[in-house]
Amino acid sequence: MKNILFLSDNDFLKNYLSGIGFNLLSISECKKNNLDLIIVSEKRIDEVERIERKDINDIHKILLLDTYTKVDEIKSKILFPIDYFILKDDNLDEILKKIDNSIELIKIKKEKKFLLDTIKELNDINNRLIRKSQTLEDELNTDELANVYNRNFLIKRLQEELERVKRHDRNFAVAIIDIRELKVINKKYGYLIGDEVIKKVSKITSETIRNSDVLGRLSGNIFMVILPEIIEKYAVKVIERIINKVELTKIKDINLSVNCGFVLIKKDNIEEFSESNKILNILNKLIYYSKKIDQKIVEYKDENMNAIEEIENIVGLDEVEEEHNVLWEELNKSKKFIKNLLPKYDDWSEKINFGHLYLPFNFIGGDFFDFIEIDEDKTAIIFCDVSGHGVSSALYITSIKYIFKDLIVEKKIYEPEMVLDEFNKRILEISKGAVFVVTTYGYIDRKNKKFVFGFGGGTSPIKIDVKEKKMENLVEDGGFAIGLFEEAYFERKEIEIGMDDMILFYSDGIYEFLIENNIVEDDKQFYDIVKNSIDNEPDKFIGNIYKFMQEKTDKDIDFNDDITLLAVRCNICKNDM
């Protein structure tokens, strides 16, 4: 049925339209109902102008001419568009035909609007997919730490440049830059300082090269620069500028230094560089030779290559270096993978305010924490430390994340004593007693303002009243570590939490670090450090602890175990208070 606003004294037409199924509305009724068509007589045009509807100009209108007024004359007097005119001499068939045509036109316009809206929606979806695809491609091709291209992208780009030389006779240069003594820096100052060195060299190089040049990170301490369409003289100048800027840079008391090997590839020597791996092998040898003779830059020249061949055992260098690069690439992927398993701030900002410090020993480690939403009132918190450290411990992280997700999300088991009991059984089944996992598991109950938890060994979480700067150990006696005993027993505990409360979880790595560096001698001194670092914001609180560690150890930072701290601010209860 079509809704028509009928503004005319023509009772015959009114009764006829009503009789064949049209729903005729008054002005008061049309304000609250869908309106498909307006039929108005010449005498009542002003009533249409007073109708309070935002879409009034979009509704089709038919004007009934009561006199023999000319159409052009009436058009000039009306403030709104008219789609059809019913003339005084029109018979019933002509009138109905104009009404039918108007209704059909309404249908066509609605379909057109639907199609346009659908096309717009599809375009929006397509644009989002394009952006998502670009983001994923960027992630696949980007070295996260240095914020430049990664090894995979560089290899592909090298091959493209080689093909360009073959087809178009266009030269290009490629150089690798080796940060000297990065392993020593990592050992002496810690990986965070080593990471700062990598970022700094990356930034300096990015700012020195042209926009058309390509910078990427091949492996831990090695960058590659591809310089398309360049002459040898300019390539050397670019590399010299990079080296000079790097060596003028100082981080802490570290004077940065680099070595560089580069080659100019052109049509005359393209046969020597038929594929990207050959270029990498030669560049590795040039870097090796530059260190051997203590020369900052070594170019691919006959005299240099002849000297390299005379050095004992140089033949196997490329294979060793390549294996090292592949191993580093795999470790880098593993580090990124483990990092992606940890909760993201943006995903939890509405539920949990948290800060954390994650420092794995030897690149990747066995510390892990996670959040899982139980329901709208409860959020689970998992904090684990797998025995040992490094790759062997990290292998268990994925299994741990899956086990907790399966228990809480799939099997709807979330009470601490039940979760830890089942977790213990599964770890025993996987590890056969080869490892144990000290674990604190619990959940924030926002509705009842409680933290309900169970303790599976390790360090006790600390409840902190941020306002009063009061601290309370949540566990006084040690519990059963996960994965050691089939008969392990886990108790349920609960504490009240408020807007001013924060809970600190930490692995024993930080305590051992402070002891070994003679910063603390007992628990009390450790708690003093925590107390003096308290801040309203969890991330600043954690940052204060780490800043203290840096200041006290100065430059001799050396971690012998994974260090992880997690602070959860209980102002998540704020909306319920």
Automatic annotation (TrEMBL):
<dbReference type="InterPro" id="IPR043128">
    <property type="entry name" value="Rev_trsase/Diguanyl_cyclase"/>
</dbReference>
<dbReference type="InterPro" id="IPR052016">
    <property type="entry name" value="Bact_Sigma-Reg"/>
</dbReference>
<keyword id="KW-0175">Coiled coil</keyword>
<dbReference type="InterPro" id="IPR029787">
    <property type="entry name" value="Nucleotide_cyclase"/>
</dbReference>
<dbReference type="Pfam" id="PF00990">
    <property type="entry name" value="GGDEF"/>
</dbReference>
<dbReference type="InterPro" id="IPR036457">
    <property type="entry name" value="PPM-type-like_dom_sf"/>
</dbReference>
<dbReference type="InterPro" id="IPR000160">
    <property type="entry name" value="GGDEF_dom"/>
</dbReference>
<feature type="domain" description="GGDEF">
    <location>
        <begin position="170"/>
        <end position="303"/>
    </location>
</feature>
<feature type="coiled-coil region">
    <location>
        <begin position="112"/>
        <end position="139"/>
    </location>
</feature>
<protein>
    <recommendedName>
        <fullName>GGDEF domain-containing protein</fullName>
    </recommendedName>
</protein>
<keyword id="KW-0378">Hydrolase</keyword>
<dbReference type="Pfam" id="PF07228">
    <property type="entry name" value="SpoIIE"/>
</dbReference>
<dbReference type="GO" id="GO:0016791">
    <property type="term" value="F:phosphatase activity"/>
</dbReference>
<dbReference type="InterPro" id="IPR001932">
    <property type="entry name" value="PPM-type_phosphatase-like_dom"/>
</dbReference>
